Amino acid sequence: MSLFRMLIAATLVFSFGLSAMPEDSYQSIIVESDMAARSAKTGLTQYTGNVTIRQGSMIIDANQVTVHYKNNKVSRILCTGNPASYQQSNKLGSRVLARAETIEYMPTEELINLKTDASLSRNGTLIKGDSINYDLQNETWKAKGDNQSKQKRIQLVIPPSRQAAASETVQPSTSTQKESDSQ
Prior knowledge:
Elements: H1 3-17, E1 29-32, E2 35-39, E3 44-55, E4 58-70, E5 73-89, E6 95-106, E7 111-122, E8 125-135, E9 140-144, E10 155-157, H2 162-182
Antiparallel strand pairs: 1-3, 2-3, 3-4, 4-5, 5-6, 6-7, 7-8, 8-9, 8-10
């Protein structure tokens, strides 16, 4: 394996392994793009054109992905697209899906910043805004709207609880039974 490939593989294992399901970090990393370029001098690696990065449950799709290094470690991964997307299962098996025109992933801080027409879906809850900051470690988020953008206010969609959904399905069948008994 070439030094370039080993460096990219080590970079992605480190950067995505932090918040991944434990078995994700043991999976092969597959990067597909139309083009890739690396500068040893600046420490930037850039993938362009229909970029897909996969490692276990983690999938990133973007038009362009730039990997930034600081002190020989990945400090920032910048993904752009229309939209770019990030998805991954957490340790409990629930899926996180993030979409935005710009996704900034900072692995050492375990943060994902979504900018411009952003959405984050987790456990059935959907958050939309102009920008969303998601803390992978603490599973907390902050969302903002922007008067100048398409997403002027945030939108939060919270699904009904499973318990409420179960009781709702029981009630109609009970009333249906009573209606058929009275006929």
